[in-house]
Design goal:
heterodimer, A: 564 residues, alpha/beta, Glutaredoxin, Rossmann fold, Ubiquitin-like (UB roll), 4 domains, 5-stranded mixed sheet, 4-stranded mixed sheet, 15 strands, globular, B: 204 residues, alpha+beta, two-stranded antiparallel sheet, 34% helix, 17% strand
């Protein structure tokens, strides 16, 4: 492929791709996301290819491994176009029947459809399934139509048109103005306005300027950021390229862990393809704008998600946080002006440019605009990646999208923001997805939502997070390191039936001091789950300490002690 | 070189603009406790004992005095109720490692810290990093470093470097606020583990 030399040529290339594709041609999309692959999607794809060959349909039917549409719970997910018939939990042995009946005879196979557990109704199309119905899938909606390894697939759904528009008709200042007007806020949880950050960096005097896409996402139970990069790497790149154009940066990095090799592979391939097409490299789309983007494999420690440790580790130093008095937009990576944004911030950029800031800012609440992609997990029926408009209530997410609690158990708590987030009990579920509202309730806008049911012991869950952080903290400052050490000792003692009077007060003092005295955001947030649980579930702690009883029956020593 | 005027504990203080709040306070005879601070070393901000309340441009926040640059019209409060509570708890956490440390003992009374509040730890080290940073920044040897992370973080000598460099130095010993016991002990371990006779013993 020769490099595309102008935005006009890009549209011609797109038309060329589209004219070579017949929208009425049968096409089979099998989710090739990490979760579906783990439940056998690779075998399903291979079986489709073999079956289509066997039936001599190679010229008539397309088969592809596609990006994750989100319904991980029921994977491998298969969608058949043009009818958009959605089959779930497909096994290789279902494949020949799908080809014979659905592809050839246009017959729907009932047993592979989604069945609503409450009504017993079957859903034929993806859009009929309640899990998808209430979502607003502006970012992830096209995933299942696209092979993440194919840049042509991305171009076919309008990919890189925002970049074309920017190069053709927008100055860097206009791009920043549009992003500012959209009120796009940092999706890492801080909620810092992206436009303001970009503008500060653009105005900063140092050169060169850098941008970083933070896809570190180390929270246990969270997978939305990495799944997005895996499913739609070109959207991430397009957002970053537009960002660099606006900021005046010549180098960008995607900071990601190699725990998900498929994510890294797709990101690297996408960069290579974007270079071949002229979306990266010298004179992008014929302009005088040059840009290189690289994947940076992080060292794996949770603390590296914190901005100063992230940059220290990229500079080859120990990945420990530093006390800083300069903004990264003035002195960031290599002491140069740097914009660090979360992956989910970058993916919204093409959308804002294409649809306009006004249309974007109409979605959500006044102060929190656009959508948010969460990984929904824990004791809900529908585990997966979900995209919801800001302003949606957590009750809708858990019960309408998540399909309620597994095994008809009772809901106990929702945990948002991972080890540095908080819990809310049932009576606060009408809380909205909104930076300020969540902060007030002690939740963090992290990518992960974890649902706990009546059989979950909150004390045990908090102990798990504290254990995680006791290992993942860098251990540099006293309140974080020794605070965690002693909190964990007290938690161990409580869950083992050795809890004492005064333990809860001690935990409260430790968490209070940690919150106000720790060096970095990790330490300052490390006891947020503990604090939230002491506020909402204090009775569970008291049962452990005073009655030596674990109400959920999870803490083994206590459960067995009762039976003696 | 510019001079800035700030207020520390209601006292007007003039300081050079490149000074930290800690240096400005010291120059005015105002005492702020420190443990990991050393004038020959870069600010480390790890012990958090020097935390003070800083008010600048209408914003109030807690910050470490050892790293915070002075600013014109800054208002610093070094002994608020919150700060005393933080220092007391930090001292109590450190006392769980080193209850007999003279440097810690000196602060116990002032802040009303209870040395037995938290369960005692096997390690004396309070992770001030003075030995590690002195060896790296002043001696440029890096014979001692931190290993592991989180609650498992410990100092450790690097036997290959320590066996060559440390015998004639040992300058880090006297920096150790937990009475050099930790450094001396680990240093000895490093020496033993690198000695040829030890290797012969273990190979038998």
């Amino acid at each position: 492929m020769a490099q595309i030399k102008s935005p006009e040529e890009l549209e011609k290339v797109r038309q060329g791709i589209l004219s070579g594709r017949d929208p009425s041609k049968p096409s089979i999309s099998v989710c090739a996301g990490s979760a579906c692959l783990a439940s056998g999607a690779a075998e399903v794809i291979a079986a489709f290819k073999a079956e289509i060959k066997k039936q001599g349909l190679e010229a008539d039917v397309d088969t592809k491994g596609a990006g994750c549409p989100g319904f991980c719970e029921r994977g491998p997910v298969v969608v058949i176009y043009p009818e958009e018939i959605c089959y779930l939990q497909v096994k290789p042995e279902d494949v020949s029947e799908i080809v014979s009946s659905t592809i050839k005879e246009k017959k729907v196979i009932d047993r592979l459809l989604y069945v609503d557990p409450s009504t017993g109704e079957k859903a034929v199309h993806e859009y009929d399934i309640p899990f998808y119905k209430k979502q607003m899938r502006l970012v992830i909606g096209d995933n299942i139509k696209i092979d993440p390894k194919s840049i042509d697939d991305y171009l076919a759904v309008g990919g890189y048109s925002a970049l074309g528009k920017v190069i053709r008709s927008m100055t860097p200042d206009q791009v920043i103005e549009e992003v500012s007007k959209s009120n796009l806020r940092g999706r890492s949880g801080s909620g810092f306005p992206a436009g303001f950050k970009w503008e500060s960096c653009r105005k900063s005097e140092g050169e060169p300027k850098y941008i970083i896409c933070n896809c570190h996402e180390g929270d246990p139970g969270a997978f939305a950021d990495r799944r997005l990069l895996e499913a739609t790497p070109h959207t991430v790149l397009e957002g970053m390229i537009i960002g660099c154009y606006a900021i005046g940066a010549a180098e960008g990095y995607i900071f990601v862990g190699d725990e998900f090799p498929q994510t890294v592979e797709n990101a690297r391939l996408a960069i290579k393809q974007a270079e071949e097409y002229g979306f990266l490299g010298k004179n992008i789309l014929g302009s005088d704008f040059d840009l290189t983007i690289k994947v940076y494999i992080d060292g794996g420690g949770y603390v590296l998600g914190e901005s100063s440790s992230l940059m220290a580790s990229m500079e080859g130093k120990i990945g420990e946080p530093r006390t800083k008095y300069d903004h990264a937009t003035d002195r960031g990576l290599w002491a140069k002006p740097t914009v660090l944004n979360n992956l989910q911030t970058w993916v919204n950029v093409p959308l804002i440019i294409n649809q306009g800031a006004d249309s974007f800012s109409k979605i959500g609440t006044e102060e929190s605009t656009g959508t948010r992609v969460f990984s929904l997990t824990g004791k809900v029926n529908n585990i997966g990646m979900v995209e919801v408009p800001m302003g949606m209530t957590f009750r809708e997410i858990v019960f309408d999208i998540g399909g309620g609690i597994r095994g008809n158990k009772k809901f106990k708590a929702l945990q948002a923001g991972g080890p540095m987030g908080g819990f809310i009990p049932e009576n606060l579920l009408d809380l909205q997805v909104d930076y300020e509202e969540m902060k007030k309730a002690g939740l963090a806008m992290g990518p992960g939502l974890i649902v706990a049911d009546e059989n979950t012991c909150i004390v045990d869950m908090v102990k798990y997070y504290l254990t995680f952080l006791a290992n993942e903290s860098c251990g540099k400052c006293t309140p974080c390191r020794d605070g965690l050490r002693h909190m964990l000792k007290i938690m161990n003692r409580i869950t083992e039936g050795r809890g004492q009077k005064g333990d809860l007060e001690l935990l409260e003092i430790l968490s209070e001091v940690q919150k106000s005295a720790a060096l970095c955001a990790l330490g300052q947030g490390a006891s947020d789950p503990l604090r939230a649980s002491l506020k909402h579930f204090r009775d569970e702690y008291e049962a452990h300490i005073e009655e030596k009883r674990c109400p959920a029956g999870v803490c083994k020593v206590l459960s067995t002690a009762l039976n003696i | 070189m510019g001079v800035v005027t700030l207020t520390i504990d209601n006292k007007e203080v003039k300081a050079k603009e490149e000074m930290t709040v800690l240096e400005a306070a010291q120059s005015a005879g105002i005492d702020i406790p420190t443990l990991c601070h050393h004038e020959k070393l870069e600010p480390y901000t790890a012990c958090r004992l020097c935390m003070v309340e800083v008010e600048s441009r209408g914003r109030v926040k807690l910050d470490t005095a050892c790293s915070s640059p002075v600013k014109e019209n800054m208002v610093v409060r070094t002994k608020t109720e919150d700060i005393i509570k933080i220092r007391r708890t930090l001292l109590e956490l450190m006392l769980s490692h080193a209850p007999d440390s003279r440097e810690l003992q000196a602060l116990v009374k002032e802040y009303g810290a209870d040395k037995d509040r938290f369960e005692k730890e096997a390690s004396f080290c309070i992770h001030c990093g003075l030995c590690v940073r002195y060896c790296a920044e002043v001696k440029k040897k890096s014979a001692v470093g931190f290993i592991n992370s989180g609650v498992r973080r410990e100092i450790s000598f690097v036997p290959e470097i320590a066996s060559k460099e440390c015998w004639n130095c040992k300058e880090c010993f006297e920096l150790c606020p937990t009475e050099a016991l930790q450094t001396a002990y680990l240093f000895t371990v490093a020496q033993i583990s690198d000695s040829p006779s030890f290797e012969l013993e273990s190979e038998k």
